[in-house]
Amino acid sequence: MNNKMLLKVIRPSNKKGxxxxxxxxxxxxxxxxILAIFIAAFFIxxxxxxxxxxxxxxxWQKKAEEKYTKYVDIPGVRGKILDRNGEILASSVLNYKVxxxxxxxSPTSVDIERLKNLLGLDNSRLLGPVxxxxxxxxxxxxxxxxxxxxxxxxxxxLEFEPVYERDYPFRQAFSTxxxxxxIDDDKGIEGIEKxxxxxxxxxxxxxxxxxxxxxxxxxxxxxxxxxxxxxxxxTVDAGIQSIVYREASAAKKRYDAKSVSVVLLDARNGDILxxxxxxxxxxxxxxxxxxxxxxNRAITDQFEPGSTLKPFAIAAALExxxxxxxxxxxxxxxFIKVNGKKLxxxxxxxxxxVKDVLAKSSNVGTVKIAxxxxxxxxxxxxxxxxFGKTPDLPLLGLRTGTLPKWKDWEKINQATISYGYGVDVxxxxxxxxxxxxxxxxxxxxxxxxxxxxxxxxxxIFSMTxxxxxxxxxxxxxxxxxxxxxxxxxxxxxxxxxxxxxxIENGKYSTNKYIASFVGFAPSENPxxxxxxxVDEPKKHKTGGKVAAPIFSKIAASALRxxxxxxxxxxxxxxxxxxxxxxx
Length: 583
What we know:
5-stranded mixed beta sheet; 5-stranded antiparallel beta sheet; Beta-lactamase; elongated
C-alpha cells in the first residue's frame, strides 16, 4: 500500500468530518489550557495571600478590628446638687443594668426562682430571654450588692453594665425645684437639672471592646477617661424646705385646695431659701409621674395678687407726697364709683387713717389714695418693683406677669390695679417686691445658686416711707387686722393678706378663689420673707383664714431654725377676732 492508502485506513472520518487524530490533538490542547488556567489561578491566590499577609498588613488589621472591635461611650458622672449647707439634694448612684445572652443562658427552675427574688421580677420576664435568640436587657437596674448576690449563683449568660442613675433623697419636697433627668441619657429635662444641665453634665469617655460572635465582649480597654460634671450649690436650705413642704402639704389637705405654693427669701440679701409646690411628683417613682406635678408653679403660674399689692400703691403715694400716714380717708358708704363701675368694701369702715386703710384692707380707701397719683407715677413704682418684668433668675419657665402700660390706663384701671386686680404676677415676683420693705427701700435681686450672677439692688422708697410701711404691715397682722392669724408667739411679724376671684371663661368665678399672704419676720430686723398662694381652697376662701395661718406655722419653725430669740413683749397667741375683710 502506498502512503495515501495508509492514511485513509488509519484516519477514517467521523460523522462530523473530523479524523481521530484531529480529535486527539484538540483534546490534548484543551487539557493543557485547563492546566494552565489552574496554575494561573493558584498563582493569583498565592500572590493575593502574600500581598495581604506581608504587603498590606495595616489594611488587613483595620478590617479585622472593624469586625471584632466595638467602641462604647463611658458617661461622665453627673455633678451633685447641694443645698447652702452642703446637704445632697441630687446625686448620681452607681447601679447595673442586667443583660441576658440567650445562647449562654440556661438556668434551672431553681435558678429562675432565685433570680426572680433577687431582681424583683416575675417568671415571664426571665423565661422570655431563654426562648429568644436576641440579646435582652432587663428593664430594672440593680445595686452592687444585688450583683454580688447574683454572681454567687454562678450562672452563665448574664452581663452587668454599670450605669449612673440619679437619686433624690428629699423626693417630693424638692421635685418641683430640682426637677428631673431623662432615664436614657441622664440629661436634665426639668427644673435645676435642666437649667444647669451644661454645668452638671460630665464629659463622656470611651472604651474599646473586643467581641466574639453573638456580641459577647471578652476584653475591654479604656481609651478615653470620662470627666465628671461640676457640683452646684443652691441658696436653698434643706431644713427650711422640709418645714415648708410639711406645712404646705398639711394646708392643702386641711383646706382641700387644688395647690399650695410657697416662696421663702432671705430678707437680708434676696437668697431663695425655699420654693415649695404641692402637689409635687416623686422623682424616684417614674411609673406614676405626672409632669404637671413637676412644674414649679411659684415661677410659672400667674395670678391677680389682690390686696397683697395694696402696700405698694400706698407706699408710692407716700413717696410722692400726696398723702402721709396720718391722712384721713373717707370710705363711707363702703363703695366708690369709678368710670361708672362700683368698687366696694365688705362693709363701710367710715373714716380711716392711711395706716388703718391697710390694716382693714379697704378697697375704697386704697383706690382714693392711688387716684391722687398720676397714672405714670403709679406705673413707674410698680415697674421698678419688678412687676411686668421677667425675674433675673437662671430658671426655666419664668413668667413675666402683666402690667399694662400706663398710657393705656383709664381711671378704672388705675383704681383696680391699686388693690391687685387687672395685673398678673408670679409668686416669686411678689416675694421679691416685698424686699423693698426689709432692705432700706431697695429691691433686692433674687438668687438661687452659687453660680447665679444675681443682679443689682435698686433704690425705690426712702427710709422714712419704709419705716412707715413696716409699721402699717405690723398693724395689718395685729388682733384687729386681716392678717391676725399670721402672728407668731414671741415675735412681731408684718404682712398683708390677699383674696381674689379666679377668672373662668372670661368672667370672675363666684366660687373659686386664690388666697394669699406675704409677710416677713421679725418685723424689726427681718430675717426672711414668705409669700404663700393657695389655689382654690374649698374650706374657707380668704387670705386671712387660709394663707395667714400657713405663714404663722412656717415662721414659727423657721425662726427657731434660724435661732432668732423671741421678744418677751411679743407673746401674742393668734386667735380669731371679729370677721371683716376686703382682702
